[in-house]
Design brief:
Structural class: alpha+beta
Bound molecules: iron/sulfur cluster
Number of helices: 4
Length: about 170
Amino acid sequence: MNPLDLELLALLLMGVALWLLFLVAARRSRRGPGRLRSVDLPSAPGPVLRSERYRLTGRPDELRELPDGRWIPVEWKSRPLPRGGPPWSHRIQLWAYCLLLEENLGRAPPFGRLRYGDGTVVDLPWDASARRELLSLRAGIEAPYDGRARPSPARCRRCRYRGGCDVRAA
Ligand code: SF4
């Protein structure tokens, strides 16, 4: 293959990638609610939201603008919605995005949205109780370790933080 053919092939592949990107964005855009303002794709990452005050950063899968001008975060989960509803970790993650949006835009989102792989959509209100739960978790993380954890060898063997953990049991 001569250099010209290679350049043409590269251009063609780039064109196909851009087209696919456009298709994914257009498909997501139609899902609502509101207007799609940003989408986080491997080839085109969305904006990282930061809060100095809460020492938080995050990059939601989507940001959407509601008709009243408020923005909401949308988080995609590839698995189906668990039988018991959104797990605590999903809720905390979504609320952290709500807090980050509030900090960055100066307006609180009314809710955040979780989209599951089975098509289920769950909207979680960003209200006083959600804020309390998130901030109390954050306060717990920031507090000095009080030594009360009783790590088990079985759990620590599977733990992804074991490399940097100095209280692991195995
Ligand atoms: S390795 Fe550390 S962080 Fe992980 S479960 Fe054990 S004690 Fe907890």
